[in-house]
Design goal:
The chain is mainly alpha-helical. The chain has helices spanning about 10-15, 35-40, 50-65, 70-90, 100-120, 155-180, 180-185, 195-225, 230-260, 270-295, 300-320, 335-360, 360-365, 375-385, 390, 400-405; strands spanning about 130-135, 145-150. The chain starts with 10 loop residues before the first helix and ends with a helix. Keywords: Membrane, Transmembrane, Transmembrane helix.
Length: about 400
């Protein structure tokens, strides 16, 4: 049975303590925090996804900065910046797991460079002898090559610096490979480079898929209590990996054939020859200008040559796009965040090139005489600009397994 209603005294009649009336709900100000929400990185979806070319431009900027120095501290800072961005913005796709493989490849390159320097000698003179190896006498036609002999600390440090620079270049390329979607990158290519782009994208995706297949098979063998190391285990893992790669290639070829890949429009021969000349000439100019930028002697003519090559190549690509009859469904666009990501890598490259003009000794520590490398302040701060994508790029959504574990 329900209780009878109880008469409560009115607070204003008997002088008792007033009963607090419910407060009216407050409406949040829509203008509060608008600028912060605009700057904060949103969760990535199909509408705001970063352009894959922005990741490659960012990584190439870091690689250009790595090519301008042999300071191991700056090279290590570049690797740390690339690794942090990859850890903050990579997805769960197969190609996103290839960064660790590129790091291991970089360490292998350093080890091979030092080993070759020890075994075959080096032109770097030195006074700090580490060990003496038996020297193999060589004929006169092999003059300049030495097998064994005196190993100095100067030549080992020089080989270590040289190998670290090449390893950093590989790691920067691995960062772009782990962050950029190769299928979307292929869709963003001009029509004149579509056939070449397919071959490049297939070659780029081979290594990540290979790493993913090897990791999956090793995990399966470990769960079954089988060995994952040794020559026998490698042979047993290699055959399924190659078989899977062959099946994937056949499936891709069948899907491309079903979609009418290879169709082209009829273009007059004069237009076709002009397109070939402009494209090849422009790409050669871009390659020559890029090589001149990476060398210390080409600073005067590198930028004009690179600019002329870019204009010629773009004209050839626009003209060659007429022979492509394909269309793009929801093409990716270079939004403000994509420009910021690409611009951060370009800023790192430009500032490091500029730093090579006023502080060459800081970027290239001396080996003869052997000195301890120091961390220059301004080049290090310029490298930290490469961390910008970790804060402004859209955050990849969590996978289902990550959500369940969280």
């Amino acid at each position: 049975m329900s209780q009878p209603p109880v008469d409560r005294p009115h607070p204003r009649l008997d002088g008792g303590a007033p009963i607090a009336e419910p407060a009216e709900p407050t409406v949040p100000d829509p203008s509060a925090g608008t600028w912060w929400r605009a700057l904060r990185a949103p969760e990535a979806d199909r509408r705001n996804a970063l352009h894959p070319g922005a990741w490659w431009l960012w990584a190439l900027g870091l690689a250009t900065a790595a090519s301008r120095t042999t300071n191991p501290l700056l090279l290590g800072l570049l690797v740390a910046v690339a690794g942090y961005v990859v850890a903050a913005r990579r997805t769960d796709a197969p190609w996103a797991r290839s960064y660790a493989a590129f790091v291991k490849l970089g360490l292998f390159v350093i080890a091979v460079r030092v080993l070759f320097s020890v075994a075959l000698g080096s032109p770097i003179p030195g006074t700090h002898t580490l060990l003496l190896l038996p020297e193999v006498p060589l004929p006169d036609w092999a003059r300049g090559i030495r097998v064994g002999g005196r190993i100095t600390a100067e030549q080992v440090v020089f080989a270590l610096y040289d190998g670290a620079k090449l390893a950093t270049l590989l790691i920067c390329v691995g960062a772009a490979n782990a962050l950029a979607n190769p299928a979307r990158l292929l869709k963003s290519l001009p029509g004149a480079l579509y056939e070449v782009g397919v071959a490049v994208v297939v070659a780029m995706t081979f290594a990540p898929n290979l790493v993913a297949d090897i990791a999956r098979l090793r995990t399966a063998r470990r769960l079954r209590g089988r060995r994952t190391g040794g020559i026998g285990a490698i042979a047993q893992i290699g055959l399924p990996v190659l078989e899977g790669a062959l099946e994937r290639s056949i499936a891709i070829a069948a899907s491309m054939d079903a979609r009418g890949y290879g169709r082209s429009a009829q273009v007059p021969p004069a237009v076709r020859h002009t397109t070939t000349a402009l494209t090849l000439g422009g790409l050669l100019g871009v390659c020559a200008g890029s090589y001149a930028l990476l060398t210390a002697e080409g600073g005067s003519y590198a930028l004009p040559l690179l600019f002329i090559g870019l204009i010629t190549a773009v004209a050839g690509l626009r003209l060659g796009g007429r022979r492509s009859v394909r269309t793009r469904y929801r093409p990716d666009r270079f939004g403000p965040r994509s420009w910021c990501v690409a611009g951060s890598g370009a800023a790192v490259a430009v500032l490091m090139i500029w730093a090579g003009g006023y502080a060459p000794d800081a970027l290239h520590p001396s080996v003869v005489p052997l000195v301890v490398p120091a961390l220059p302040l301004w080049p290090a701060l310029s490298i930290l600009i490469g961390l910008l994508p970790a804060f402004i790029a859209p955050v990849p959504p969590l996978s289902q397994s990550t959500k369940e574990s969280a």
